[in-house]
Design a protein that fits this description.
The complex is a heterodimer of chains A (268) and B (69).
Chain A: H1 2-53, H2 58-74, H3 78-108, H4 117-139, H5 153-185, H6 187-208, H7 221-258, H8 263-266
Helix pairs in contact in A: 1-2, 1-3, 1-7, 4-5, 4-7, 5-6
Chain B: H1 2-6, H2 17-39, H3 52-56, H4 58-64
Classes of the chains: A mainly alpha (268), B mainly alpha (69).
Chain lengths: 268, 69
């Protein structure tokens, strides 16, 4: 049974990844290209300034700088990065998240009250979208190329994953508390209390964690906004389609099993 | 037995922990490894040297929201 659910989760994730690739390609790539153009413009301006400083050796230095730029691009061309590379990254991300999603579903199904497979799958899709993408991105949003200092990558990666862990932990804690309160004070009150608890923990964490401010002063605001909206859109579509599709697939599989009433006889 | 077949599916049957556990451990580990390679390899930390994985997944990393470089 777990095997069947895992396969369905990864399949649903693969399809979700394909859809997300569409969003990334149509809405995201133009912004990535603009950001890279901005980056190159800046690099050229810097080289030019450098040249003026050292007029005598300018020609040799400029040649060297150009070679360096070409070398950086040469490893994987922009064309491959924006097509095959992007597709691979998004699909592997989708399939892996789909697999984890299926494992969470298999663990929780039948243990969280009388929730059918499709509703459970939807709720389970909203949770990670919020906890591992949306909430961390409120503090540390997605950034296009040219935004972010290469020297601080370790620091920024650490903070990003720390924020992810905090919000995932806060979500699990808030849901558990909310369910307990719901038993005593009714479903709506329990849900509201759980939601309030989650928001409170996140607000405190995001207040305490250090800010990262590495957007170049003259970086076009509209490109940044559009890039972040594309990122949000692709994640939203990925989790929504993963939850919906997996719910349908899981329901069919579970129904086939329930038809025989005694699942213990059939389970491998 | 007969009523169990005709009854609406009200209480979904949970999968026993014994059956779940090996899948959780090995499946979970594999999935996390895959996510690491898409999101973080050759960024802040690296298992393989060079920048190929980083450059290949470059656009995906940026758009999925990971810190890239």
């Amino acid at each position: 049974m777990v095997r069947d659910l895992l396969i369905r989760g990864m399949l649903a994730g693969l399809v979700a990844g394909l859809l997300a690739f569409g969003v990334a390609k149509v809405f995201g790539e133009p912004q990535v290209d603009r950001a890279i153009a901005f980056e190159e413009q800046h690099a050229q301006a810097e080289t030019a300034a450098h040249q003026r400083d050292q007029a005598a050796t300018a020609r040799q230095e400029s040649a060297a700088a150009h070679e360096h730029g070409a070398e950086e691009e040469g490893l994987v061309s922009r064309k491959v990065q924006s097509t095959l590379g992007l597709l691979t990254a998004v699909i592997v991300y989708g399939a892996a998240m789909g697999g984890l999603f299926a494992l969470a579903f298999a663990s929780l199904y039948g243990r969280v009250g009388e929730v059918g497979p499709r509703l459970l799958a939807l709720l389970l899709a909203v949770a990670p979208f919020a906890a591992i993408y949306f909430v961390p991105s409120l503090k540390y949003p997605a950034n296009p190329p040219a935004v972010g200092d290469g020297a601080t990558i370790g620091y920024r990666t650490g903070l990003f994953f720390l924020m992810m862990l905090i919000s995932l932990g806060a979500l699990v804690f808030a849901v558990a508390m909310g369910r307990r309160l719901a038993e005593r004070h009714g479903g709506l009150n329990g849900t509201l209390a759980g939601a309030g608890l989650f928001i409170a923990i996140i607000a405190i964490a995001q207040l305490v964690l250090p800010a990262i401010d590495e957007v170049p002063a003259d970086f076009p605001a509209l490109v940044l906004w559009k890039f972040r909206m594309a990122s949000l859109g692709l994640q939203a579509l990925m989790w929504a389609s993963l939850g919906l599709l997996f719910g349908l697939l899981a329901e069919r599989r579970l129904k086939a099993q329930d038809g025989f009433a005694q699942r213990s006889l059939r389970s491998p | 037995m007969a009523h169990a077949v005709t009854a609406p599916v009200s209480r979904p049957a949970a999968i026993p922990v014994r059956e779940l556990l090996p899948w959780l451990v090995f499946g979970g580990l594999l999935m996390l490894l895959a996510l690491y390679f898409v999101g973080a390899e050759q960024g802040a930390t690296a298992i393989f040297s060079g920048m190929y994985v980083h450059e290949f997944t470059h656009d995906g990393r940026h758009l999925l929201g990971f810190p890239c470089h």
